[in-house]
Amino acid sequence: MHSYLAAFVAGFPLLATAQSLFDARSTNYTAIFASGLSSGASIHFPNQPDYNTSIVQRYSTWDQPDFFVTIKPATDQDVQYVIKTANRYNIPFLATGGGHGSEPGFAKVKNAVNIDLSNFREKKIDTKANRLTIGPGMAFFEFEKDLYDVGKHIPVGNAYCVNMIGATIGAAHGPYQGMHGLGIDALRSVRLVTASGDIVTASDTQNKDLFWAVRGAGANFGIITSATYEIYDAPNGGNLVEADFAYNGSVNAALWQLLESWDETYPREMGLTMVASFNRAANATSLSASMSFFGTKEQAQPWVDQFVAIGPTRWQSQTIPWWNASQAQGFGTGSNSCRKGVYNNHPSVGTKQTNAETYTKVVQQHWDFAASRPWFNGIMFLQRFNTTATLAVPKDKQGVYPGREFGSLIVFQNFYDGPAHDTEVYNYQNPLRAQLAATSGFGKLRTYINYAYGDEGPEVWYGKENLPKLSQLKRKWDPLNKFGAGNPIPLNYS
Ligand SMILES: Cc1cc2nc3c(=O)[nH]c(=O)nc-3n(C[C@H](O)[C@H](O)[C@H](O)COP(=O)(O)OP(=O)(O)OC[C@H]3O[C@@H](n4cnc5c(N)ncnc54)[C@H](O)[C@@H]3O)c2cc1C
Ligand SMILES: *[C@@H]1O[C@H](CO)[C@@H](O)[C@H](O)[C@H]1NC(C)=O
Ligand SMILES: *[C@@H]1O[C@H](CO)[C@@H](O)[C@H](O)[C@H]1NC(C)=O
Ligand SMILES: *[C@@H]1O[C@H](CO)[C@@H](O)[C@H](O)[C@H]1NC(C)=O
Ligand SMILES: *[C@@H]1O[C@H](CO)[C@@H](O)[C@H](O)[C@H]1NC(C)=O
Ligand SMILES: *[C@@H]1O[C@H](CO)[C@@H](O)[C@H](O)[C@H]1NC(C)=O
Ligand SMILES: *[C@@H]1O[C@H](CO)[C@@H](O)[C@H](O)[C@H]1NC(C)=O
Asked: Quick one: signal sequence residues (predicted)?
């Protein structure tokens, strides 16, 4: 044995493996990765002046992953090569779609390779077969108008900037789920690159177990490079009624009582986002509601009238194409919610029933907290869904996602000035989240994985009943835990 190696091994007996000798600072990533990539791929380092404009930025800067390098693959083979190479050198990696996710688990990703999927811009619409095929670089708005133009529709989420595949691997909740179910209910197949670098298709007929897992736990099993969805004939010719209402905070109780009164009748055509916030400029509490109704003005009117009856300070109602509803909501301010690079996290609660008394108290506590803290710009929002379509999906087509019963998702979107206030914000929102959970109709905390804060644990993210099978599939498809840093599935759950 060469003497220098013998000395090294003797000096560092526990480190004598290729794995632990790896040192990000002294490794030439270009030399490792460049040779195997296609000409369309590129490599970007954080010290380059154009780094931030060359790669997908994150929505939240809270608990961000720490990347040593960003690689933008252009082909499935590139993704395969990056995964295999990273595995060989035992370099951690994380896929980035639209960058909208934020989880404390991301902060554990250090010195990693960022696999930025923004080159995957596939978009195919087949109106005969009723199929949409897209790549993971595609946000909702990048195909919504194309579907509208051919009279089709798909259940997307609220904010037009979110990537369809990134949302789908959680569930893809949205204002249209009352019509056709969740994004996962429209999903028909995916192509993904697995932890071992294999390219596989998962659908109801191929790798059925993996297809089940992808629908709710999809960040844990591979990198999806293409997804095919069923598309539907657009209701009401693709046009919907979009209405916005702004209220003085004094209607707090009345607004939630209205919502509670709809618990048995909330129609499937309707999507609704309600927001409570503290208006610092005006030093005043405020509430708002934005609704979409996939039907005629006459059909929407009874619902609009009930919002008007509470006495908005301002309101409007218009008929618009569905693809523009996300930007139009909030009196045309919908794009504000897409601003990136802002420090925030989002504890949230899924509920089965509306409890006006609890919501009124929780909103008041939110205002009290915000009013006296100028560094806090958080909001509370509620999205309301009709669950008839999501609950009608047969058991064997449901996938993992355990939140089909959610009539509402309530989210504390905590915007504030940085880590110095992490504890104070957590200590404020944690009891509020518990109050909402206590009257949610579930008797315990449940939420949607893509809105989760990250401290809920795998039973909440994936459903206790699903964990034995998920854990088994994890051992089969990703035994070394390469994926899922955000919301890890335990490898040995039983
Ligand atoms: C403003 C805003 C509005 C939102 N509105 C909605 C909504 O209406 N409905 C809804 O359902 N959700 C909504 N979300 C939540 C959204 O679904 C999640 O943030 C989702 O993770 C976004 O996907 P992304 O690709 O943009 O995020 P990223 O942060 O890039 O990815 C999130 C996670 O998924 C993994 N991932 C991403 N792409 C792939 C892929 N192709 N293959 C495998 N793993 C992948 C990443 O590694 C990461 O772990 C919203 C989020 C924001 C910030
Ligand atoms: C890293 O490798 C690339 C390609 O092999 C080479 O051009 C570059 O000079 C190397 N960088 C350093 C710092 O050695
Ligand atoms: C890129 O953005 C990060 C914050 O996300 C910032 O810290 C850094 O200074 C930026 N780099 C450049 C070159 O602008
Ligand atoms: C809101 O309502 C309160 C109580 O009715 C009233 O005092 C206040 O002036 C109102 N604010 C605005 C901006 O209308
Ligand atoms: C959902 O909508 C359907 C049809 O509009 C309606 O029959 C049903 O009662 C609604 N469900 C709930 C829980 O409101
Ligand atoms: C905001 O209003 C409250 C009373 O509602 C008052 O006590 C406080 O001084 C006001 N703050 C500012 C900055 O005007
Ligand atoms: C889409 O909505 C925005 C915001 O309301 C509006 O400014 C724009 O004119 C709309 N575009 C079309 C084509 O309707």
From this structure: 1-18
